[in-house]
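Blackboard transcription, Thursday session:
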Amino acid sequence: MSVLKERAPKSIHRTSARGFPYEEIALTNVLKSKLGGGIPEACLHRAERAIATLQDQYIQWVRRDLAHLEELAGNAKEPFATDEWRKSVKEMQRLVHDMRGQGGTFGYPLVSSVASSLLDLLKQAAIAPPNMARLVRLHTDLIERIVDSRIEGDGGKTGEQIMTRLGELTAEILAQDKDQSAG
Amino acid sequence: MHANALHLSKVDRLRVMVVDDHEETRWVIRTILVAFGVQRICEAGGYTEALKKVKPFQPDILLIDYAMPGRDGLQLIRKLRRNRDDPFVPIILMTSEATPRILSAARDAGATEFLAKPIVPASLRARLNEVILRPRSFISNPAYFGPDRRRKAASWDGVDRRKREAGPPPPTSPEPQSEEGMRNQEEALRDVLNTLETSVV
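(Written on the board underneath:)
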């Protein structure tokens, strides 16, 4: 049975400085007594080791997600957004969102940075599907190279240069997209 | 000392429910929780599954993802706070987009704590210990029901509390084991950069 059931909250009726009545409910700290304290620091090292054992699994997840992303990007058949394309973009957003989150967990913040860049682009509805597909491929190729080479960490100065170059290439595609839509 | 701390801890009695649509994220969280000594873990992939499982499982703490397809984490928190069986259950909202707008909406919904993604053992332990060791009183008025937010507001000094407590951030690049490892890493990075440099879009 949950300890929360055993809680016996004490309620006090008060009035805020602005004159609004409210109820303050004080809770007994049963969780601390149930556990005899918090989670000890010693567990931290064990958890870090456990995460390290999932590294190979993580690489497999990334490869699977990259393949799925490329497959979805392949749905960019028309120069304008169809319902099918919107669906694909939504699914791509979900995949890239998760990829961004997991990069940091497994020590690949550079993957998170590239995923973050792609996620921002996927949220821009105005980009024509074929150009969005090019942007997706640009980013997925880069992520693939990072995980294939097992580049952990943020890459320092070279990592910064990689992100700068990615930004330049992205800007070129966006400029072409703008020209095409204006023409 | 560590062995003693582990011996005294009864973390195995903790019941944690993890709600996230992403199976791999649940796997990562479960791996960390098991390493912490938590044995009673219940997983749900979304709003409906969580509501179905919460009553029989009776969690001590819920970890809920913000971005889920369909009804999101905030809707689930609001629903749980209206649950008469256990409206005070500590809820940790996990989000990779900790923007002021989302954090404010999460507080309004009744989240107890936030866990910024990426999830790493240190931050998960810190947030769990926060709700285990320092439970907050609740506030109830016609417009709000949830943890008392005043304590945090009063202590706000413009610096993220987690950053303040953690001190200066550690370097994000892992320390390579050897000079050779360092060289290999740098070479791999240069290769990636060179390929990008020659890319034509």
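Lecturer's comment: Chain A has two domains: 8-43, 52-182.
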